[in-house]
Please model this.
Amino acid sequence: MRQIDHLIAGGGGGKAARLGDVYDPNRGTVQAQVALGGKAELDGAVEAAKAAQPGWAATNPQRRARVLFRFRELVEANMDDLARLLSSEHGKVLADARGDVQRGLDVIEFACGIPHALKGEHTQGAGPGIDVYSMRQPIGIGAGITPFNFPAMIPMWMFGVAVAAGNAFILKPSERDPSVPVRLAELLLEAGAPEGILQVVHGDKEMVDAILDHPDIAGISFVGSSDIAQYVYSRGVANGKRVQAMGGAKNHGIVMPDADMDMVVNDLAGAAFGSAGERCMALPVVVPVGEDTAQRLRDKLIPAIQALRVGLSTDEDAHYGPVINAAHKARVENWIAKAQAEGGEIVIDGRGFSLQGHEQGYFVGPTLIDHVTPDMESYREEIFGPVLQIVRAKDFEEAVALPSKHQYGNGVAIFTRNGHAAREFAARVNVGMVGINVPIPVPVAYHSFGGWKRSAFGDTNQHGMEGVRFWTKVKTVTQRWPDGSVTGENAFVIPTMG
Ligand code: NAD
Model:
């Protein structure tokens, strides 16, 4: 059976004491095993990072950027292979898998501009003969801990910027689909990055704890579920590290009475069910404003959802494929049962779905649940599956309040033709990323990604200038070059007195 090894100092991690199963979600079988490491493997990676990082930081930023330019070309040349590999372990259809890689490449393109992003500030004449300037220096060794649902994009969000800024980076990808992150690290080596600048260590909680406690790791970026995000944030910060930890989500789509309903339904079909709903920027809650809007929406949604095609991740005609594993399929189906027990109306039931010839695959049919209310647990918690809940709001105020009061605050969207309503909504809603007639408002790479409330712990976002700030520390220099005289213009006067 294929074994997926660590990538430490350009090589593997030696004989693995523990192995984890990597499934084929289309078939419900084990297709590979991944080495699960801990402190010993991490120590090896940190030693290699310590050896490589000072030289990399001293390499001028244009040269570091050139490595990223080459990496970008290599990833593009390998796009089809990467997408197939990603899709085979994750279960998302090939078009989504290519999108996963492409959205990561967008951040690499941003990181290619690192010389510009690292420029500091300068004040001439802050006092007599005194200049002040600041520079951004790499934090040293950074680590990334990533979720299963974007095994290419999220690692690239992190290491693209961290490596460009002169850091060494140790990636701990999800143990459920670990192959693509290793391929990406191999391609960065091929592009000319020194060994030790991007390494991959696999594992579960044991490896995560080793990262959180390692004294030589200065910063940690985490993306995953909220309870783990909060744990990673607290333990990492208690150990004196800087930590950004993105968590779960329950994004709402507000449908105003004047919205273009055909557009809304088309957008919802993709945003709620695409990638089997396993996106932190999926739209699993739709909020029609007013009973008439709710009825019109429901009438159009039902046939659109019934027309969705669930299939193998390799089926180019499928809208979405299986969920990640058997436990998650059971979890999603349990949430549907829970919603029903809480009084939700199961309009379309995706439980018990099976694909002919692939009965053991982890497929869940598209599900629509109406008359969901804010007190229901199935509304308050993240389901992370192909399930759309309708929560009816009587007016605009109630529609703004629903996502604002929810424990998660990752993304939200409003569908309307009314510019004033959209503007008010964007200004007032208590959520980090807002779409106006855009169902999945993932910011482009040169802006930054991050939610609010339990969707993110820490205070900097991913990528864009926020990413540059996270992976660098500012040093400020106050300088004076006296000409030898001690009086007059060159006498030392601190700026506040000047
Ligand atoms: P997860 O929290 O189970 O795993 C994330 C990472 O944490 C993995 O690398 C995993 O190995 C590690 N981990 C798991 N259990 C751990 C434990 N007990 N202690 C320490 N580390 C542990 O998340 P997942 O199921 O892989 O991903 C789905 C979740 O990620 C969803 O909640 C989704 O909303 C969220 N997500 C959020 C964003 C965002 O940007 N806000 C983006 C993508 C996914």
Remarks:
- The chain has a mean pLDDT of 96.
- The two ends are 73 Å apart (CA to CA).
- The chain is about 40% helix and 20% strand.
- Residues 145-150, 172, 174-175, 204-205, 208, 223-225, 228, 246-249, 280, 382, 384, 410, 451, 455 surround nicotinamide-adenine-dinucleotide (CB under 6 Å).
